[in-house]
Each structure stands twice: as structure tokens, then as C-alpha cells.
Amino acid sequence: MWLTLSGSTFKVSVMFFTLRTLSVTGLCLWWGLGCAVAADALIVWPSDWEVEALPSPPSSPDRPSIQIRQRAVKNDQNGDPAMVVELTQTRLQPGHEVNVQSVLLEIRKAVQVNFVRGGFQSVCTRMKESTLSDVPAMETTCTITQNGAHVMTQTLVAAANKEMAWSLSYAGSADGYAAHRDEVLRIKDGLRLNVTP
């Protein structure tokens, strides 16, 4: 898939790669290596979103299994992706305590490095308190530019309790993010996390 922005074209896989980096690398490395398949979280997606259940990355003794739960894409009227949302849920190693603000800071750094490697620049807001379902969370929003032009916006949200960790990321073209942000916030507000261990 390709996304055309301001006369230039870049692969939507940049967004997907960034989301995967947040979900897989971020959660496995920063939440603690005791990741395992977690119970389902419930997202009610509008009917015009394309929803994909994502496979688990290969597991090994050094890399416990992690389940990437869902990714959904909202296409524009031309059928091109305008917004991508991804939710990840993992189970924490017993006794592992998470500093969510520090985790989100490290994830944000990794995301910004990936954009630089792809030829993009990014500026992110200061982290602020948020929620996922009824779980306290932290979030930040990054503006991504190329040659001075705003091409994409991405919001990163991280949350954890004593048993589970979650990440929610939504990213879109500059116009797509602006057009669909309120709809994504309604989806986020309707999110129900299964926090039972």
C-alpha cells in the first residue's frame, strides 16, 4: 500500500514499522522480558474500518511470546490509508513494576530514531496523563515532517497495572489524522481492557 502526501509518496509500511516497533520492541524490552499471551481486550471498531488480527512474533527461550492483538486501518475516499490504529496487550512477569512514564519516553525515542532513519524529522509533545479504559496511562503526540512539510501525526499511549501492559498507537497522514482523530478518541474511550490475570 502507498500513501500520497503533499505531492510526495512514502510507504505506509513506515507507519506499520513504527507501530510494530512500539508494540514488540517497546513492550518486550521495556515492560520486562516476562511477556506472555494475555487475555483479550475489547475494541468495538466502526464497520468501515479494516481490522486485522496480528500474529504473535516467534518465541524462543530468550524472547517470550507476545501477542499483538489488533490493527485497524481507516481508508480515505480513494481507498488509501488515512489512519492506522494498533492495540497491544501483554502479561507482565510476576513482581515486575513498571514506570510507565519512563517506558513511554524510551518508546518515543525509539520511534523518533526510526523516523530519522527513514528520512523524516519528528517533534513530540511533552508526555501527559491519560487513561486506557480505567487504567492510568501516559501519552505523547509526534508531528512528523519531511523537507519541512507536515506528512504524518502519531499518538503513543502506554499503560500498565501489576499484571498487564498495554500500548495504543494511532497514526495518520496530516489530513487523515485531523479528519479521524475524534473518531479514534471515541474508539479509545470505548476500549474495555480485561485486567483479570
Note the quaternary state here: single chain
Strand content: 35-45%
CATH superfamily: Mog1/PsbP, alpha/beta/alpha sandwich
Radius of gyration: 16 Å
- Name the overall outline: globular
Query: What number of domains?
Result: 1
What are the segments in which pLDDT stays under 50 over at least 5 consecutive residues?
1-39, 60-65
Please, how many helices? 3
Tell me the distance between the termini: 38 Å
Query: Biggest sheet, in brief?
Result: 9 strands, antiparallel
Nearest-integer average pLDDT: 77
Number of strands: 11
Q: Could you please describe the fold and organization of this structure?
A:
By secondary structure, the protein is of the alpha+beta class. It has one domain: Protein Transport Mog1p, Chain A (3-Layer(aba) Sandwich). 26% of the residues lie in helices and 39% in strands. It is built from three helices and eleven strands; from the N terminus they run E-E-H-E-E-E-E-H-E-E-E-E-E-H. The strands form two sheets. Strands 3, 4, 5, 6, 7, 8, 9, 10 and 11 form a nine-stranded antiparallel sheet that branches. The protein has a two-stranded antiparallel ribbon with strand order 1-2. A hairpin with a 2-residue loop joins strand 9 (135-146) and strand 10 (149-160). The longest helix has 18 residues, at 13-30. It is globular and about 45 Å long.
